[in-house]
């Protein structure tokens, strides 16, 4: 009923924005100081709406699924590699490729490029070692093409280049981690010296991974388990715009669901398998289309559209959550990341996008990030971050183990022995077999990640056949990560629920569901003094029932007071007047329809409490209390 | 009963700390990266305990008193004066005093001090203007004494010096605001240019004041009202220590109660007037003692120990809150700030101090900060931050208004006319009368804040008698500010509730009240598979009753499982065994006494739900269910 009225009214964004500011849902922060882009303060209705959304999120995810809630720090020390050194990805790639080109020129007997200006020197500071190694002509051309457009590469693209061209930290030869968009982080420094750089977390995820071992012990070393965290994160956006959709400080709610990579089924998938979603898969997008397919999540997992049950389970749960708090399901879709936008390590990734006046906006990301995060933290710190499975039947198998003749190798290769050892230790079984085959033919060449080649002969490397018996399987858990931008959801929700009355465009309404509405019940006494004791009594009884109410005892007309609270999204109102004094009755008004019912005060309280708790809806309330058509009908 | 056992056991801090870390109440953040002082991550029990404390705080303060909840930004742009410039208080004081000494030397015909080293130059950069003004010898001595020990002054002391010696910003002559401990703030910069310095808020208070006008409108322009905010704040402590008691990132809960300075009564003071507090007033401390006086807050306000009803009301409410969540009232006192430690603008200030193994620690501050904060923000921005009272009877009075003869003044004083105008405009009535009297005698001298003197004669300044009629009283509200350090409270609570069983010191217990305990009920099935359906059923029924439970279905003995959860502070446990299958019964165990009761499953659920909701206590539970003395008695 209310829905019909709402859809009939054209969306008026300037009216929405004026109302959000004037009712202090939120407002630009530091406005009296001239304001600053991308920072917003939430006032009483906005803060309450956000708190209610968080509360519902906590119930829907944390309590329902017995997740481990964390509260980790926002301030983050820079600790970006084994040495704690931070490299700028563009400088690193530029420096290394230039050094290789210089080495190529040297090998070709040409003069190296002159190191001309200061900016260039700066870029090259990570690449002092030039080795005379000749490159293929095609490789030279490729390097030059990359250098010419280095500024155009995004972080993930630079990471891709590091992997493709085996670019490591030239000072340590250590592999570099995936580039972080460090320039989007707020930098600071920790402690009085200024020597410990820090930054503000751009998401809460790191706090989960860093504490994996503690949590794994907390759950008695059983998988799967999930951690959850709700908290502030920061991104130093270059030019924030679009209100709450792109801000510099925001509240996120993130889940990390840790799971055995060999078993991504979900115990409660059965409960959600019939939930229908609008899916925009990667194939449709790659064909240039945006047509969603409506599909049950059960079918989507069964036919391979969604990678696995756990990922599918969370997509369905995200859908249910968003719809429960009032997002219009017709304006909600799940868009799969295409190959070129997904991180290289991710198995599958979907965004819940909500349509609003700015288009379709990503509000929740849900990715199967495989073992990436735990592996990276483990590699950086040397701390094992693995799970164990006690095998009922031990696995027994045979394996060739390479044995290096270190004495001879040391004599031949000097300090490169170490590099050779590392290369050989990191070979997987297939490569061990390949190497063994080559050596059987007389000789084999191995290559370090930096391109150094070593020729080995059978006297330097032998193989020993060993029987391995494993009774415990050790593995790095995979992680499914649903990540919610609460401010974006809140803004879309305000857009989806906003409309004006046909009778008067100035009379705006937010049809927020009671579960998230900032105030559930408005108490409106006819005049200020005479009804004070009834107001107090009603207010107390509602509070005891867990219903958040507020009193508007201003001198304005009852109609005007209701109108003001329609614009705050308050779903129910009760009027206390002379009939309350004389007959002990109270009227109950519904925000969207303006229907009014009447009944004994305690009965009205009972009905409104059930309405707020969601155990009955308005249609059922209509059967519980008679309609009121008295003189104070106000719409 | 449990209380007796607890007190009998000596407090063992190393055991407490070991348990806090091993159970992951909290742990040093970034530990796998080597950790960083003053940053802690809260794990599942710590995060839940904190969430429950916050939840209770929200009920006790925000909901109970209908406060306006805000959620404002952590990132704060630097906007520290009219020009947005930030001055370092020690540099400012040093620079100005040195410039004055140099001017004195110049006036005395001596050579100015040589500006010797770079460090000195840096300190002096704010004081380039040297004016040849001779100083009294005693003043010279005083300035030199101050300069000699400049590094020893605290922020408030530097502020005091600025006021005493009328030190203003030398570039603008603008008055400087009270020094902020800026070196304790985490600095950053906002946006891509690096030109907009920012810092992380050291408390949440600024967000309240900045939004005063919006909130005043939100409450329909009525006083008193209060705002509240719970959120993260940051202080870049130089050497954080003492665990959660001094950290660099922490959660605060702050209230700003805005009140008419002429009426600091509180409508609900009557409700708390009999609450007895241990008060350590300033007179006792100034006499060198620490003896608390036990006094009802009604008496304390009546006899002037506590400045006013509103401040007293909050002291009592703070006491009630802390005791409700489990702080030992015998280890809680309220200490008044002494004259020399209280900010100059504050009317009265008390700290709730909680005794713990580090001594008495300030955990809540409660100050009447008068009109200071709103005045400062209003002065800095030019935005009026006032409230209005419609007077029933307009106030009519007569007043002498000074009239400057600008034409003649301009000729005599040139561009100093402006300064003279400002001085005269800012005179209060008493000073206007004084000036009028002096001029009647022939001449008068007025002094600018920087010490410039102007001699006025009756032709330059006359007075006009005016009748003023005020029907609206405009005033700057005063603010009472209760400010809670939640991490400190949480830590003290863990200390106060920690003990070990007499039978075995390894069996540690946190006797956390059910209202804040991380988990309320532990469900312990005898063996893993057979009882699954009963476990699910009990768990679901508890959740429906709003009771947070967890299941421990590990293979360890029931006694060991209970012991593990005593160390997590779980107040109740229910055991599901063969009797549950055969007779439909379940046992109920209380954490502190290890008492066990038995009853039909639904009855046990009903009793434990009431226990958790606080509607009955354990003594009453003993009358509702029979004791269980079966073979599985576990203590």
UniProtKB/TrEMBL annotation, chains A, B:
Residue span, Aminoacyl-transfer RNA synthetases class-II family profile domain: 157-518
Region Disordered, annotated ranges: 106-127
Pfam families attached to this UniProt entry: HGTP_anticodon (PF03129), tRNA-synt_2b (PF00587)
An example Gene Ontology molecular-function term: glycine-tRNA ligase activity
GO biological process, one term: mitochondrial glycyl-tRNA aminoacylation
Keyword Mitochondrion (UniProt): no
Positions of transmembrane segments: none
PROSITE patterns in alphabetical order: AA_TRNA_LIGASE_II (PS50862)
EC number(s) reported in the record: 6.1.1.14
Biased composition (Basic and acidic residues): 106-120
Gene Ontology CC: one annotated term: mitochondrion
Compartment annotation: Cytoplasm
Keyword Transmembrane in record: no
Domain of life: Eukaryota
Keywords for the protein's UniProt record, in alphabetical order: Aminoacyl-tRNA synthetase, ATP-binding, Cytoplasm, Ligase, Nucleotide-binding, Protein biosynthesis
PANTHER family to which the protein is assigned, alphabetical: GLYCINE--TRNA LIGASE, GLYCYL-TRNA SYNTHETASE/DNA POLYMERASE SUBUNIT GAMMA-2
Protein family: Belongs to the class-II aminoacyl-tRNA synthetase family.
Protein name: glycine--tRNA ligase
Lineage, uppermost ranks: Eukaryota, Fungi, Dikarya, Basidiomycota, Agaricomycotina
């Amino acid at each position: 009923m209310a829905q019909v009225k709402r859809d009939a009214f054209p969306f008026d964004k300037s009216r929405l924005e004026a109302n959000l500011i004037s009712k202090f849902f939120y407002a630009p922060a530091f406005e009296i100081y001239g304001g600053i882009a991308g920072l917003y303060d939430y006032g009483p209705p906005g803060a309450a709406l956000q708190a209610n959304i968080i509360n519902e999120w906590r119930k829907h995810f944390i309590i329902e699924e017995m997740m481990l809630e964390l509260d980790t720090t926002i301030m983050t020390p820079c600790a970006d590699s084994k040495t704690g050194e931070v490299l700028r990805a563009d400088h690193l790639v530029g420096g290394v490729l230039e050094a290789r080109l210089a080495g190529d020129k040297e090998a070709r007997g040409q003069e190296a490029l002159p190191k001309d200006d200061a900016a260039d020197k700066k870029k090259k500071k990570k690449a002092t070692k030039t080795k005379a190694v000749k490159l293929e002509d095609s490789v030279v051309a490729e390097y030059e093409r990359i250098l010419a457009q280095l500024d155009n590469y995004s972080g993930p693209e630079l990471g891709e280049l590091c992997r493709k061209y085996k670019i490591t930290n030239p000072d340590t030869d250590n592999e570099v981690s995936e580039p972080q968009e460090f320039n989007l982080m707020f930098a600071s420094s920790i402690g009085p010296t200024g020597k410990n750089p820090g930054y503000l977390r751009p998401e809460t995820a790191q706090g989960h991974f860093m504490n994996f071992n503690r949590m794994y012990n907390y759950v008695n070393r059983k998988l799967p388990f999930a951690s959850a965290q709700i908290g502030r994160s920061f991104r130093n956006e270059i030019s924030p715009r679009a209100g709450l959709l792109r801000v510099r400080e925001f509240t996120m709610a993130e889940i990390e669901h840790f799971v055995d990579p060999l078993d991504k089924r979900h115990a409660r998938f059965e409960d959600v398998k019939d939930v229908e979603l609008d899916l925009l898969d990667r194939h449709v997008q790659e064909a240039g289309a945006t047509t969603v397919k409506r599909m049950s999540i059960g079918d989507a997992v069964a036919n391979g559209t969604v990678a696995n049950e756990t990922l599918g389970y969370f997509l369905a749960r995200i859908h249910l959550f968003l719809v429960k708090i009032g997002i219009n399901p017709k304006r909600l879709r799940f868009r799969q990341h295409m190959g070129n936008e997904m991180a290289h390590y991710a198995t599958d990734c979907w965004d819940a996008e909500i349509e609003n006046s700015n288009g379709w906006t990503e509000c929740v990301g849900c990715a199967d990030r495989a073992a990436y995060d735990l592996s990276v933290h483990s590699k950086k710190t040397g701390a094992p971050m693995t799970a164990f499975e006690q095998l009922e039947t031990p696995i027994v198998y045979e394996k060739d183990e390479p044995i290096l003749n270190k004495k001879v190798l040391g004599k031949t290769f000097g300090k490169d022995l170490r590099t050779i050892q590392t290369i050989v230790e990191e070979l997987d079984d297939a490569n061990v077999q390949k190497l063994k085959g080559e050596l059987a033919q007389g000789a084999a060449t191995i290559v370090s990640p930096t391109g150094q080649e070593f020729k080995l002969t059978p006297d330097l490397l032998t193989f020993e056949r060993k029987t391995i018996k494993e009774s415990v399987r050790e593995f790095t858990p995979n992680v499914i990560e649903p990540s919610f931008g609460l401010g974006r959801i809140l803004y879309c929700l305000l857009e989806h629920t906003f409309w004006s009355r046909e009778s008067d465009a100035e009379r705006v309404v937010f049809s927020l569901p009671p579960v998230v509405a900032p105030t559930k019940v408005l108490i409106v006494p006819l005049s200020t003094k005479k009804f004070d004791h009834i107001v107090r009594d009603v207010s107390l009884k509602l509070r005891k029932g867990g219903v958040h109410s507020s009193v508007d005892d201003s001198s304005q007309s009852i109609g005007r007071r209701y109108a003001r609270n329609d614009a705050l999204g308050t779903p129910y109102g009760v009027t206390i007047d002379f009939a309350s004094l004389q007959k002990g009755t109270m009227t109950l008004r519904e925000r969207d329809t303006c229907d009014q019912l009447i009944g004994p005060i305690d009965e009205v309280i009972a009905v409104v409490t059930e309405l707020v708790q969601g155990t009955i809806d308005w249609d059922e309330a209509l059967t519980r209390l008679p309609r009121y058509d008295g003189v104070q009908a106000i719409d």
